[in-house]
Design goal:
Number of helices: 6
Shape: elongated
CATH architecture: Up-down Bundle
Order of helices and strands: HHHHHH
Strand content: under 5%
Radius of gyration: 15 Å
Number of domains: 1
Number of strands: 0
Structural class: mainly alpha
Helix content: over 70%
Distance between the termini: 27 Å
Length: 143
Amino acid sequence: MDPRDFQQVATNLAAAGNPAETRSAISRCYYAAFNVAREFVILGHNRVASGPSAHGKVPHYLNNCGDLTIAAVSSKLGDLHGLRIKADYSMDNRYVEIPSTALFNVKIAESIINDLDACMGDAARYQKTAEGIKAYKESINEA
């Protein structure tokens, strides 16, 4: 499955606007962006642990890849992850039920995916980024 399909689901849910749909939109757009980011790391011949630890490791790898745009993606992904946790687990948090919150974050996820896709579309840049991730992983003994 292409994780970008989650992004379309998120867009549709965010437009609907009820609390369950806005919360679900936030969750789906996070998973769209996260899975594209995880794929970005893996396709560069860098391993990523599966399971919960990947949600912390993928942003760290992106943040330390040497590409400023991808480092900014890391920060956005981390923020979106925090909001996803609120949407999925904090039923008393009404902020994640506001349609404009969902729509805004769906756009953030879209920008994350677009930035990653743009990097992957530039072979030299992507190779340099993948090498930066590998060097970072070696520096923290994860190679």
